Structure to design on (607 residues):
């Protein structure tokens, strides 16, 4: 944003930044900020402008870290908002405003700040800025509406001592005055392709899946609803940037600071964008130096405001607050609809049309396959036997050592039902039955899984769900029950389940499973003390929670996620979490174990 304001004619007096690598970048680009510019590597919570000789400031711009309010925060388990120490940095922004008393300020953050903590965070932020005597205006703007080849929505709050300021009219897209088209990703990077095209291909678990996805799509392309012949994922089982491949004919999706290995946007040639290309997608000048490694460079870019968006905002501020006779940009009136959600609604509508067509085809296929008159010969009848070791003391699959148990899983598919029988070499065996019913077929192979098991103890309930995962991977293109459920924040379950312990003394887990099957239980917070009632146990709630975690249930408390109020808990899934993607180890020969099968053991389960 400094670059944009400098281009509009402002002199940048100082930049305050705590990240050392960012400070190196700022110092390496002094020509972009003006001769008086100081790059101050400092903690804003301990920063005083006066101590650095900073005074007579006309305007302040800033964007406190947004992770506390962002979608990335939701992926980590929730949005902490002002409960996070990073979420209260706006208070220090207010403190500096009160010290310098400029004519105005600009505050930038993610749009998630509007709804964080049931909107209480945003109300508090607006209240604190308002107490300083500023008239406030705010809008959610999409950088693509101002010529940035990237859809990047941000909340912009502007404060002024001379009345509420207006925002600039979009210059690109359907909401623009002239109806100019968005700047596409290819337009931004076209001349770099022959110079920067990488020969290195993506490798790893989802490399083949990525290669199958067309530009402009993500993992949803590999779902049954989109008509893929060999689906890998269930509908909405991942976040939208997972395996997202950018289209050269549109702006890209938001580029984040710390993408996961398989989080996009990926280049349409199925590779990562280079730093030079990313600079173009953010509208940084080619000569602007981003210092540090590639990872650190991507982080700096992902945390930045596109300079072109900064420039148009700076022009609007300059025009209204400092130099009213010069009309630099066309201003929108306060009621103008910036249509930041219009693009998404159009895309959703198009997706619904495609998925409806394929769903109707699949429904007809199911009706034919599972009608009462359909002969069993239409279904594959296959079986398997899997053996593996499990260490109850370490709660993980290990090389066979003293105290570990040998399990044997036998499965047979027929008449659309996987029948599984699970046995262990333990003398104490609890009888259990797990039934999973699917709302639609998995690759046309089955509609139900029934696990009859004899397990040594209640803590081995996770082994039952691992058996379900094995059956799913055996007869379909999916590899786990997770792929058919969705992320716990946006579940779209394709199945229902019932888990029953058939022996006396297991009432607590039976009651827990009944609770998990109840509508709304998984989506809500519950009092920690209720664990005693739900599990029929007299132990402390924390010990019960720990035991459930050891059994593989994804139970979360305030200690693991600060968005959960103290004294409450949440269980995220109706099934347990597999210890490792390769839970079931294969024996090369009957009775002979290969140590290579255990090289990828999963992490210990812990609270």
């Amino acid at each position: 944003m400094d670059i944009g304001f400098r281009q509009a004619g402002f002199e940048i007096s100082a930049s305050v930044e705590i990240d050392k690598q960012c400070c190196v970048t700022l110092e390496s680009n002094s020509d972009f900020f003006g001769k008086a510019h100081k790059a101050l590597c400092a903690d804003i919570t301990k920063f005083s402008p006066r101590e650095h000789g900073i005074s007579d400031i006309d305007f302040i711009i800033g964007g406190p870290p947004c992770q506390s309010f962002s979608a990335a925060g939701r992926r980590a388990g929730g949005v902490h908002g002002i409960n996070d120490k990073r979420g209260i940095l706006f208070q220090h922004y207010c403190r500096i405003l009160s010290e310098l008393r400029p004519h105005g300020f600009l505050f930038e953050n993610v749009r998630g700040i509007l709804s964080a903590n049931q909107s209480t965070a945003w109300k508090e932020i607006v209240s604190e800025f308002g107490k300083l005597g500023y008239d406030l205006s705010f809008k959610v703007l999409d950088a693509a509406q101002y010529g940035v080849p990237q859809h990047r929505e941000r909340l912009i709050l502007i404060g002024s001592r001379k009345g509420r300021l207006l925002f600039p009219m979009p210059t690109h897209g359907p909401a623009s005055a002239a109806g100019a088209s968005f700047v596409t990703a290819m337009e931004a990077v076209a001349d770099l392709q022959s110079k920067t095209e990488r020969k290195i291909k993506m490798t790893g678990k989802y490399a083949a899946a990525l290669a199958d996805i067309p530009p402009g799509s993500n993992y949803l392309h590999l779902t049954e609803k989109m008509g893929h012949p060999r689906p890998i994922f269930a509908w909405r089982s991942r976040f939208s940037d997972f395996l997202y491949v950018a289209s050269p004919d549109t702006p890209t999706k938001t580029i984040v600071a710390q993408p996961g290995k398989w989080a996009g946007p990926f280049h349409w040639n199925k590779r990562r964008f280079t730093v030079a290309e990313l600079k173009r997608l953010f509208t940084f000048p080619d000569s602007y130096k981003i210092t540090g490694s590639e990872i650190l460079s991507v982080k700096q870019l992902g945390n930045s405001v596109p300079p072109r968006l900064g420039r148009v905002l700076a022009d609007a501020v300059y025009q209204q607050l400092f130099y009213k006779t010069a009309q630099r940009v066309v201003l929108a009136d306060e009621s103008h609809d910036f249509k930041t959600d219009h693009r998404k609604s159009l895309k959703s509508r198009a997706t619904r049309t495609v998925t409806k067509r394929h769903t109707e085809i699949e429904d007809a296929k199911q009706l034919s396959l599972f009608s009462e008159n359909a002969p069993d010969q239409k279904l594959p009848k296959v079986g398997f036997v899997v053996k593996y070791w499990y260490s109850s003391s370490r709660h993980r699959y290990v090389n066979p050592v003293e105290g570990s148990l040998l399990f044997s899983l036998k499965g047979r598919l027929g008449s659309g039902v996987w029948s599984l029988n699970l046995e262990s070499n333990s003398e104490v065996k609890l009888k259990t039955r797990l039934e999973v019913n699917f709302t639609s077929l998995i690759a046309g192979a089955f509609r139900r899984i029934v696990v009859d098991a004899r397990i040594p103890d209640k803590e081995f309930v996770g082994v039952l769900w691992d058996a379900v995962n094995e059956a799913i991977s055996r007869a379909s293109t999916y590899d786990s029950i997770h792929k058919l459920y969705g992320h716990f924040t946006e579940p779209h379950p394709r199945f229902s389940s019932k888990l029953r312990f058939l022996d006396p003394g297991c009432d607590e887990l039976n009651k827990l499973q009944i609770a998990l099957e109840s509508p709304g239980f998984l989506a809500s917070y519950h009092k920690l003390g209720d664990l005693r009632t739900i599990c029929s146990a007299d132990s402390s709630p924390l010990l019960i929670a720990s035991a459930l975690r050891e059994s593989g249930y994804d139970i979360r408390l305030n200690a693991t996620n600060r968005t959960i109020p103290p004294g409450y808990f949440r269980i995220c899934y109706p099934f347990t979490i597999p210890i490792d993607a390769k839970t079931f180890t294969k024996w090369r020969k009957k009775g002979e174990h290969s140590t290579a099968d255990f090289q990828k053991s999963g992490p210990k389960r812990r609270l």
Remarks:
- Residues 376-598 form one domain.
- The chain has two domains: 2-185+306-332, 376-598.
